[in-house]
Design brief:
This protein has one domain. The chain contains three helices and three strands; from the N terminus they run ααββαβ. The radius of gyration is 17 Å and the shape is globular. The relative contact order is 0.21.
Length: 137
């Protein structure tokens, strides 16, 4: 993947279809855990405040990729649903809490941690915490 310089022009955004989130909105740990088992994910609205999202985004953008951890930051080429070659920015940083202790507060936040316990059992352990930025940047 081509690495991106901070001042480099990023590709135009790709139109992504939106999910009907009302269809995936459940309350309570048991219902959310069942959603993970059935759908492969649980939608947890308002899991983060807008301020937390802004702070997290700034901190994710400041992380430096670690080649030894196979982190990647750069332009990724892909084929869209119509068969066109496209480019988009992607940053994937593993174990973000090793670079910035700010991220530790999100490891065991309810209800996400409770849902993980319900799905994986009492012997559930966090061994990493990836930070992702996808799309135009």
């Amino acid at each position: 993947m081509k690495q991106v310089d901070p001042g480099e022009h990023l590709p135009e955004p790709v139109e992504i279809p939106r999910l009907d989130l009302d269809r995936y909105t459940f309350s309570g740990v048991d219902a959310l855990a069942e959603a993970v088992r059935r759908d492969g994910f649980a939608y947890i609205p308002a899991a983060l405040t807008q301020d937390e999202v802004q702070e997290m985004r700034g901190r994710l953008d400041a992380l430096k990729p670690n080649a030894q951890a196979n982190d990647r930051h750069g332009i990724k080429k892909f084929i869209d649903d119509e068969g066109n070659e496209r480019e988009a920015y992607e940053a994937h940083t593993k174990c973000v809490f090793n670079q910035d202790a700010y991220f530790l507060q999100f490891l065991d936040r309810a209800p996400a941690a409770d849902v993980a316990d319900a799905v994986m059992g009492d012997d559930c352990h966090i061994i990493g915490q990836s930070g992702w930025v996808n799309g135009p940047g």
